[in-house]
Write a structure and sequence with these properties.
By secondary structure, this protein is α/β, with parallel strands linked by helices. It has a four-stranded antiparallel β-sheet. Strands 4-3-5 form a three-stranded parallel β-sheet, sandwiched between helices. A two-stranded antiparallel ribbon has the order 2-6. It has eight helices and nine strands.
């Protein structure tokens, strides 16, 4: 741990943790203070002034990042046999139904996204206890329960991410990798924040976006000025 602590200490000396930075400066800082030998993920934590326990203040949705996430997502499509060819041609990594339902019941979840058609949702719904906690449960609101499998698969492969406010009122989502150039990270971050702002529930009172922090997998969080995402 000594080595990491030294790196973290050096990182903390490079910026003022009490200051608020513009999105561009925050990207520069996160790139500078990330001391890893792998291409770390860059994430945003957006704290919202909502009560997630109330259904009318739930914030969830999806966004296609203009420059993708830098990660190729593994897609499982659960569908009836007549839709299998469409799913395979669109680039799904795994396609099937009963076999994969059994595999998931046995504990297999080595996938990033599950897409399904409405007609098999009753079967897929039984996997809620396994898929739900892992954020893998298909949902019509995020476009993962659909008859247009090709469109859904293409969107996921192009950099579509789903996000959802957690019980503390925070949305945690990736906006790329440290190895992206500055402009790509700025544009991805802006797309995410602007999408979250559009989803403001009518029932939310007071300040909607309370704080935004940007960090990489191993870096401390840098506070970002909310206004700089919409300017």
């Amino acid at each position: 741990m000594g080595k990491l602590t030294k790196k973290r200490k050096e990182a903390l000396e490079l910026y003022d943790k009490n200051a608020t930075y513009s999105v561009g400066d925050a990207v520069d800082l996160v790139k500078k203070i990330t001391k890893t030998n792998f291409d770390a993920s860059v994430d945003l934590d957006v704290r919202l002034g909502v009560d997630p326990r109330k259904a009318n203040q739930m914030v969830r949705g999806s966004v296609t990042l203009p420059h993708g996430t830098g990660k190729t997502k593994k897609v499982l499509v659960l569908c009836s046999p007549d839709k299998e060819d469409e799913a395979k041609e669109a680039g799904a990594d795994y396609v099937g139904l009963d076999d994969y339902i059994e595999k998931i019941k046995g504990g297999w979840t080595d996938i990033d996204v599950v897409i399904t058609t409405p007609n098999v949702m009753p079967k897929v719904g039984r996997l809620g206890k396994i898929l739900g906690p892992r954020g893998l449960m298909p949902n019509p609101k995020t476009g993962t329960v659909t008859m247009d499998l090709a469109k859904a698969i293409n969107e996921v492969k192009a950099g579509k991410i789903d996000f959802k406010v957690d019980r503390y009122g925070i949305i945690h989502a990736p906006v790329g990798k440290v190895g992206f150039d500055k402009q790509q990270l700025v544009e991805n971050a802006r797309e995410l924040v602007q999408t979250i702002i559009k989803l403001k529930p009518a029932a939310a009172k007071g300040t909607y976006v309370k704080s935004i922090y940007m960090s990489s997998t191993m870096s401390p969080g840098v506070r970002v000025e909310a206004k700089s995402f919409t300017a």
